[in-house]
């Protein structure tokens, strides 16, 4: 438990400014304050939460909301490939662990330092991060009206957090530079060819490129 | 303004789909766990996934306007601090603080 609290302090606390930004966005758009912590608690995925605000304001039909969720969060299906759910014991713990499988939880539990984490450490790490996110969101929603609207740029916290996770991921495998380069390329191509569906296209391209690399290098013995 | 029932229905729909996307692949992919290709993918994906997500959040940068400097300086601070001190919390907070300070004052819309 204490170990998980320490683990979550390093990256997880980056979720607080993101939650704050989301909560403030919710109240500034005129939505009721309770919808901010509710969305953070049941979805627990910053990207979708931020996207959802303008959609909810426009009273978008539920079918469209569902479809958007499917497309924006389609990437989570890939996380099952490396997330250590097989190391989580107990039915309830596994249910919760799969529910709270956010981008940040995925990044931290698949990193080199997490290889020895126990079941309890993984699950409590996820729970702490989940709590930071909801607490930030609730606080942002409640104090949002006190902060003048000219304070902008808080949503940069999400970018900063993801960049930090990317740098840690790259450093974990510093002998493998082609992988981040392929990801960069996949993202740029996706941005150009399907600007409206950048994330899903990028993930598919990136996975396809990695698979192609795997099958070609297996045959070439001279590959490093 | 949307009513409460609609807001709650949206939460329920998003929750169900997100959880299904996160949980179902574990059962579906179980037989593939021993595959070498999956092993290769799973060890290489995390870093690349974060690179893609970072670029995704930067896709709306106003590249032709001077206020783009706020997030760019914030980004430089985050990356620089992280390469130097390796303290995630420090990098995120400092980068965000710089970005908020710049975009709310010097580059205010």
From TrEMBL, chain B:
Entry superkingdom: Bacteria
InterPro entries to which the protein is assigned, alphabetical: Brnchd-chn_aa_trnsp_AzlD
Record-annotated membrane-spanning stretches: 6-25, 64-81, 88-108
Pfam families on file: AzlD (PF05437)
Keywords per UniProt: Membrane, Transmembrane, Transmembrane helix
Protein name: AzlD domain-containing protein
Species the sequence originates in: Streptomyces carpinensis
């Amino acid at each position: 438990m204490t170990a998980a609290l320490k683990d979550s302090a390093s990256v997880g606390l980056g979720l607080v400014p993101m939650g704050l930004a989301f909560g403030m966005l919710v109240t500034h758009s005129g939505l009721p304050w309770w919808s901010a912590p509710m969305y953070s608690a049941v979805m627990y995925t910053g990207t979708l939460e931020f996207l959802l605000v303008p959609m909810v304001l426009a009273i978008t039909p539920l079918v469209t909301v569902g479809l958007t969720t499917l497309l924006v969060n389609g990437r989570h299906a890939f996380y099952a490939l490396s997330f250590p759910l097989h190391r989580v014991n107990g039915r309830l713990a596994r249910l919760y662990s799969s529910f709270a499988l956010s981008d940040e939880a995925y990044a931290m539990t698949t990193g080199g330092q997490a290889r020895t984490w126990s079941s309890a450490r993984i699950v409590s790490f996820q729970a702490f991060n989940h709590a930071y996110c909801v607490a930030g969101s609730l606080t942002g929603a409640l104090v949002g009206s006190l902060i003048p609207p000219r304070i902008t740029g808080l949503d940069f916290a999400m970018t900063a957090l993801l960049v930090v996770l990317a740098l840690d991921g790259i450093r974990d495998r510093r002998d493998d530079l082609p992988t981040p380069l392929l990801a960069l390329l996949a993202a740029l191509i996706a941005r150009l060819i399907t600007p409206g569906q950048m994330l899903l296209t990028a993930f598919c391209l990136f996975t396809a490129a990695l698979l192609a690399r795997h099958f070609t290098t297996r045959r070439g013995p001279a590959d490093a | 303004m949307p009513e409460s029932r609609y807001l709650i229905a949206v939460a329920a729909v998003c929750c169900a789909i997100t959880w299904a996307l996160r949980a179902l692949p574990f059962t579906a992919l179980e037989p593939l766990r021993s595959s070498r290709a999956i092993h290769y993918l799973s060890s290489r994906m995390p870093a690349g996934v974060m690179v893609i997500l970072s670029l995704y959040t930067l896709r709306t940068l106003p590249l032709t306007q001077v206020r783009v400097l706020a997030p760019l300086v914030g980004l430089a601070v985050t990356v620089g601090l992280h390469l130097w001190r390796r303290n995630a919390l420090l990098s995120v907070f400092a980068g965000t603080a710089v970005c908020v300070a710049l975009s709310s004052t010097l580059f205010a819309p």
